[in-house]
Amino acid sequence: KNQVEQSPQSLIILEGKNCTLQCNYTVSPFSNLRWYKQDTGRGPVSLTIMTFSENTKSNGRYTATLDADTKQSSLHITASQLSDSASYICVVSAQSGGYNKLIFGAGTRLAVHP
Amino acid sequence: DAMVIQNPRYQVTQFGKPVTLSCSQTLNHNVMYWYQQKSSQAPKLLFHYYDKDFNNEADTPDNFQSRRPNTSFCFLDIRSPGLGDAAMYLCATRPGGGRGETQYFGPGTRLLVL
């Protein structure tokens, strides 16, 4: 069964600190992996996308890694800001019947405190 | 500039009273999706359109219907809302035609069923 599991479920950090969010997946056949940021009451916004051959991708203070062998990904946030408070969702794309189907994780809810 | 627009942002309806949620896009994307997201859970795909081709997920209840009268608009109709249908409903679009797989989400409509 295709699944995406994220940890921790929630996280509180102080402004300026770094943090790392984890994503483990059992999705086959794997197409790509995305990290989305979802602010409260808003739709998800794509942060990074990685294919099988890519093992790291950065977007400003966000750096995503992918280990396709162990089927793990992480999202590292550097020098956190209050505006980073949001849910971060790991989404893995699986090929299904000629098109890619997205498998969503439940998300990690991050709170950055001053 | 808003690219995926959802109206209304908040909708209150009564148990069993039909309700329609609206999504429009200015991206001219081929693919439009409807997701249901309950609190602290991952978005769940209900159905999607590739142009006029409708694709229903196997576990989407018959209570949920959709219409896409043209490229720009897509509607979600809930024929007889139950208390369990209270959720955030997200609309997303994707270019299609080999022009990329990233889905662009709207801000969502939060539905409350009394």
Q: What would you say this structure looks like, in words?
A:
The complex is a heterodimer of chains A (114) and B (114). By secondary structure, chain A is mainly β. Chain A has no helices and eleven strands. Chain A has strands at 3-7, 10-14, 19-26, 30-38, 45-51, 56-59, 62-67, 72-77, 86-96, 99-104, 108-113. In chain A, strands 2, 4, 5, 9, 10 and 11 form a six-stranded mixed sheet that branches. In chain A, a hairpin with a 2-residue loop joins strand 6 and strand 7. Chain A starts with a strand and ends with a strand. The model of chain A has no long low-confidence stretch (mean pLDDT 92). Chain B has strands at residues 4-7, 10-13, 19-25, 31-37, 44-50, 53-56, 64-67, 73-78, 87-94, 104-105, 109-113. In chain B, strands 2, 4, 5, 6, 9, 10 and 11 form a seven-stranded mixed sheet that branches. Chain B has a four-stranded antiparallel sheet with strand order 1-3-8-7, with no helix packed on it. The mean pLDDT of chain B is 92. Classes of the chains: A mainly beta (114), B mainly beta (114). At the A-B interface, strand 4, strand 5 and strand 10 of A face strand 5, strand 9 and strand 10 of B.
